[in-house]
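Sync notes, pocket subgroup
Present: LS, DG
LS reminded everyone that the earlier model was apo-only. Rerun requested with PBG included. Inputs:
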Amino acid sequence: MKFPELRPRRLRYNNKIRKMVKETQLSIDNFIYPIFVSELIDKKQEIRSMPEIYQLDIDSAVQEAIEVDKLGIPAVILFGIPEKKDAIGSSAYESNGIIQKTIRALKENTNLYIITDVCLCEYTDHGHCGIIKNNYVDNDETLKYIARQALSHVKAGADMVAPSDMMDGRVSAIRHLLDENGFTHIPIMSYSAKYASAFYGPFRDAAESTPKFGDRKTYQMDPANRREAIKEGMLDIEEGADILIVKPALAYLDIIRDFKEYFYVPIAAYNVSGEYSLIKAAAEKQFIDEENIIIEVLTSIKRAGADLIISYFSKSLAKIQ
Ligand code: PBG
């Protein structure tokens, strides 16, 4: 038998050389931490299906944000749970709504870059992401509300808005309204390929946004579709999106890779609630080594092509590194 001349193992010989040839680096600079703020509580409450993630009142959100800032995480994305819900999500675009108040409080107390999720599902009594007409989420009617919500976040001080409603034309509607109001410098990070996924289950506990009837399949994408994701990304770029999001991340690494190759804008991946809960639950049972799984999973998302990662593990990563 001939001995091999080509020996990849030479470059795995010790930690020094392994580190030198590592192709993918995780940097906390690329992470965004989600925060849930609720108007219904006055102290923080752990989310049942998401250990160590909380619904926060504004004061505890400020405490949390200060910690996030100290850990070197550059940005947060905010989700709000309002006191009052109605058919048209009125609390979503009030100047004194839960998110608007939180933005102001965080701006006063931290240096974080503040991104807001723009969507009606947490604010409507039916739990859908838009305005209902004849049992159907009406696209063009919804656009007005989504744009108004984005504008009110920006007026309160948001640095970037992230529409997650999946209506056609929302990026363009938001861009125009922001520009008309003098906010030409505020970027839009669009959830372009957002799939109708069972991985959002725990989030809906956290954000109290489960639809009261039907599901989100008339607006979110079919998990079976890959080419359609490119179409969505293309449209969002034409409408003025600055960053494109793929969501969820782990079951959609191929889509992240596609986006990276097709589009010359930064790509973000949302490592969603169900992906977090699976790991937390298995770690609690000591079936897996939590720290190593976190690093491996986040590395895989980066390796697939994500420039930015929205993750409930951001704080864990900052503490591990
Ligand atoms: C909608 C929204 C959802 C998530 C982010 N924005 C849920 C949904 O579409 O039902 C899910 C995030 C996660 O699962 O972590 N506003």
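DG: The longest strand covers residues 31-38.
LS: The CA atoms of residues 15 and 52 lie 32 Å apart.
Action: DG to write up.
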